[in-house]
Structure formats: structure tokens, C-alpha cells
Amino acid sequence: MTSLRGYRIDDPGRKFTAAASMFSMLAVSAFLLPVSADAQERTEPLETRVLVTTQDRAVLAGELAARIDRIAVRPGQAFRKGDLLISFDCAAYKAQRATAAADYRQADAQLKSQKRLFELRSVGELDVVMAEAARDRTLAQLQLQDVYLDRCKITAPYDGAVVQWLSQPYQIANPGDELMEIIGSGNLELELIVPSSWLSWLSTGQSFKARIEETGSVIAATTERIGADIDPVSQTVKVFAAINGDAGTLLPGMSGVAVFEPES
User: Is 227 exposed, middle or buried (0-12, 13-18, 19+ CB in 10 A)?
Assistant: First the structure.
């Protein structure tokens, strides 16, 4: 259970994590073919499990101490970049902003008055400098209140869907409280777990095919990154691959089989 507080719910968002764990176990058991140390000796296709993942996944947190006014998108519902996800009751921040705006107008008027008096040589230069500093200070306070008001709503950083709510409307959110978990529908990639012995022939830029079980489709992919360490227990390593072309109907959490054909 992840805690984008005060309650617990069933955690459907962890299906992705569970799928990743199952994928890891299946991957270790899927290595049925022996691998030669020499890439040129491979004459049969080699297979391993593959998982569709995304680089866009986040837990949204609040930045204000405020009551949650509305959560606009429900778990499982899709959204577009820029859509409203969460809004807060910011009446107090709006009042503070109005106060800061009044202080700024007053300080700005005083500065203009001091400048006119300086031209008439009724006040010294220091009086003008002090009035200007007071005006700049109130301007900074006004800008700070504008920042708070901008944080009264959370919008979608990319196209995607809601995994789960981590809070509820009308709850009080404090800075740092996790409110909602989201996942993007773009920036998809494939994750494989392969035997470390494959590193004798596997490298970045290598092409392969992946059969996705949920859709029945076969997609082309290219290895892009190889994990920085090897698991000492299973003697496996993670490999990440880019999907060639349009991802189509692929969704994060789908899985299948990656097939590496022997090099001719």
C-alpha cells in the first residue's frame, strides 16, 4: 500500500508492481536454452519474458496546507496533459494575496511621492532608496502569494491515467502529503531480465521481436540500456529496450515473450 492519508484502501495500483515481480520470477525460469559464450555459435532463437513499462509514473503530492476541494479524475480514468487533476480550497490564500496587493499599491504610491519630493529637494536620496526597497519587498510578497495560488490546483504533467487515489476530497492536505498516483500512456519501453551469460553476445542496439500476450501483437524493439549490476543470486541482469514504431494499444504492465533470433 502506497501512502498522490488517514485511511487505507485496496491497492489496485500495485498490480503493476506485482506484475513486475511475477515477470522477474518467470524470467528466471524461462531460460531453457543453453547459451554459448561465442555469439557466432547461436543457431536457435533465445526467449525470455518481457514487460511493458513506462518512464512516466509519479505520485503527486500537495505543496500547501489546504482542504482538498475536488479530485477531478477517478482511478482508471484517462486524462490529457494539462487537465485538472486536483484542486484545493484556497480562500485563505486569495485573501492573503489581496492583502499583499494592497500593501504593494501603498508602497508604490509612497515611492512615487518620495521621488516627486526628491525632485523638489524636500527629501534626500536615502528616503527614495528606502521607499523603493519597501516597494520591492511588498512586490516580492505579492509574487509569493501568486505562487501559492498557482499551487491551488494540480494539472496533469503528461497524457496518462490515474492508478489510485491516496487521499479523498474534503481531507486536509499538508505539504508533502501524497495525493494521487498516476501513470503515463507515453514513453513506453520494454524491460527484460536475462541471464548474465547473455552479456557475452547481447549489446545495446540489438534488435529482437516481442510477442505481447494481452494483445497478441508482435512488435519490433531494440535494446537500449543494460543494467549496471548483476543479481548475485539469480545471475540475471535487467535490459531495457526501445519500441520501434508506434506502440499502438500497448499499456504499462502488459507482458509477453522476447525472441532473439540467431545472427546470420
Answer: middle
Question: Do 71 and 207 meet the contact criterion of CB atoms below 8 Å apart?
Answer: no
Please say whether the beta carbons of 136 and 108 come within 8 A: no
Closest CA to 165 of 262, 53, 85, 249: 85
| Cα–Cα dist 258/224, whole Å | 14
Residue 225 phi, psi (nearest 5): -140, 145
Contact criterion met (CB below 8 Å) for 254 and 212: yes
Burial of 7 (0-12, 13-18, 19+ CB in 10 A): exposed
Task: Fill in the amino acid letter for 46.
Answer: L
Q: How many C-beta neighbours within 10 Å does residue 243 have? A: 19
Amino acid identity of residue 119, one-letter, is: E
pTM: 0.71
Banded pLDDT at 3 (limits 50, 70, 90):
very low
- Per residue in 88-98, pLDDT (tens digit) is 999 999 999 99
Detail the DSSP E strand segments found in 107-146: none
59: β partners: 181
Is 178:3 a contact under the CB 8 Å cutoff?
yes
Q: What are phi and psi of 24, to 5 degrees?
A: -65, -45
Q: Are 69 and 89 in contact (CB under 8 A)?
A: yes
Per DSSP, what are the bridge partners of residue 250?
none
